[in-house]
Design goal:
Length: about 250
């Protein structure tokens, strides 16, 4: 089964209306591979702005959301609010949410369930830290993270799994194409054994961690790498090169 290549840009805590407006103009004018699904993760305060300016062929994602629709949760946003801005995606479980803000696997699972029930699609992030890789427990860590997500998913067509080795995010260290392929292949094996063969062959597993114009082509050539979640490079014109990695 062919899986549509997926490129997510995670803008993180960056940009203002001027700089994001310029980036959006660049993206709207660019010639991009029509066989790639592109989703831009904008800061929540700019979701409305970005959705109104960005060409309809590109999707928009919130970078986080809470596990309930409304209530006394100061500073949080909910899937229903995200949808009200015309936005259809959310990034959940990013390593910065896990390790900077202390979000647990359990909370990420609850958020995933609520986002999907509310009609959002989810980019669900997993990945090991450097000490975990060096300790030889990469598989144990990513399988445990994946299980909590899988336990909360009914419709896998609404989920993209993003494997992001934490040691490669923003460090300039990229997992080698072979390291990425190895983990993606093992994740597909886990899905086959624990979810279903159909889900294992159809779900998109994307790679994140210092993806650049220079590294994207070889990564994209790996058979189980179905796209990217791009950080820093997604704020530059270089994102067009990454979107077109398969051309």
């Amino acid at each position: 089964m062919s899986r549509k290549f997926f490129v997510g840009g995670n803008w993180k805590l960056n940009g203002d209306k001027k700089s994001l407006g310029e980036l959006i103009d660049t993206m709207n004018a660019a010639k991009v591979d029509p066989n790639v699904e592109v989703v831009c993760g904008a800061p929540s305060i700019y979701l409305d702005f970005v959705r109104s300016k960005l060409d309809a062929k590109f999707g928009v994602a919130a970078q986080n959301c809470y596990k309930v629709a409304k209530g006394a949760f100061t500073g949080e946003i909910s899937p229903v609010m995200i949808k009200d801005c015309g936005v259809n995606w959310v990034i959940l479980g990013h390593s910065e949410r896990r390790h900077v803000f202390g979000e647990s696997d359990e909370l990420i699972g609850q958020k995933t369930a609520h986002a999907l029930e509310s009609g959002l699609s989810v980019i669900a992030c997993i990945g090991e830290k450097l000490d975990e890789r060096e300790g030889g427990i990469t598989e144990k860590v990513v399988f445990a993270q994946t299980k909590v997500i899988a336990d909360n998913v009914k419709d896998w067509s609404k989920v993209v799994l993003a494997y992001e080795p934490v040691w490669a995010i923003g460090t300039g260290k990229t997992a080698s194409p072979q390291q990425a392929q190895e983990v993606h292949d093992k994740l597909r094996g886990w899905l086959k054994a624990n979810v279903s063969e159909a889900v294992a062959s159809s779900v998109r597993i994307i790679y994140g961690g210092s993806v650049t114009g220079a590294t994207c082509k070889e990564l994209a050539s790996q058979k189980d790498v179905d796209g990217f979640l791009v950080g820093g490079a997604s704020l530059k014109p270089e994102i067009i090169e990454i979107i077109n990695a398969k051309l």
